[in-house]
Amino acid sequence: MVGKKTYFHWVKTPILALTVSLLACSGDGAGGPSNFLSLGTAGTGGIWYPLGGAMASLLSIADENRTYTAEVTGGAVENINRIRAGQIDLAFSTANTVYDAYFGSEDFDGTVPNLRVLAPLYANPTHVLVSAGSDAQRVEDFRGLRVSVGAPGSGTEQISKRILEAHGLTYQDVNVRYLTFNESASALRDRAIDAAIISVGYPAAAILEATATGGARLIPITPSRTADLMNLYPYFGPGEIPGGVYPGVDEPLATAVVLNWIVAGEELENDIVLNLLDLMANDRQALERVHDMASQIDLAFLEDPPIPVHPAVELWWLGIR
Questions:
Q1: Residue 166 and which of 32, 48, 71, 137 are 20 to 30 A apart at CA?
Q2: What pTM did the predictor assign?
Q3: Are 51 and 133 within one domain?
Q4: What span, in angstroms and rounded, lies between the C-alpha atoms of 31 and 48?
Q5: Mean pLDDT over all residues of the chain?
Q6: C-alpha torsion sign, points 81, 82, 83, 85
Q7: Beta strand pairing status for 253-265 and 90-94?
Q8: What range defines the domain where residue 99 resides?
């Protein structure tokens, strides 16, 4: 899991003043109430879509006034852009994407200053795969190879670019392919690409497909390279893919991870956020039945978010409804 990082601590308002201000803004947000809310997830080949579907169903049961639906999307970056455009209400995203959107980066047109964290999810390990017939043993060996970096503009693509950078490579040094998780698995199996970088929780269906068919194998990101990443981008952390999760991975495999977050605009109604946090605190087992990675959800990470939290998060911590 990603460790807590002191450089993300936000200055907190004195508790009395904070409580008064939050009580004043509790209730419906600036956008007014809506009976139908959408949760942006990702493609069907990863974990976000089934997990988001379960979360939407549970929220619909808990909230008698609204119906929640999980949407298939292009992933982390598209989700933030759709929140900004008012096309979805809540979304899953990655720490790197959330950070870049709030502070501004090349992947976003300006900043998204009203973006707020609602709750943490689990950490995404970076899966680095090479074709079964490839001699590559590390990312440094990717020079001149055909490498899938994820769907264009996705969170995986952002991470892939930074993984390559930490290993002394740029897009100019490899033959970039912009493929989804499922497309990457098929391309590895068919020897249409040499390698793929995929940021997703384990076990992921696309990774299982690629490794179970003998079309690909996983290689590590060493702790020293992860340390280089953390020096460049503070939202990365060290982690591992446990042995036995995928064919060919018998021992823990070192890699770099980023934490996933649920985000929304600051105007999202407070009671929606409170219901979400209640669900994640009290009904996590229902999410774990959908995917084991839900067992890694830890609300303590709300103490150390990449961007400011939604006002209702403070209400929830204080036990105010």
A1: 48
A2: 0.77
A3: no
A4: 26
A5: 88
A6: positive
A7: antiparallel
A8: 6-123+260-318
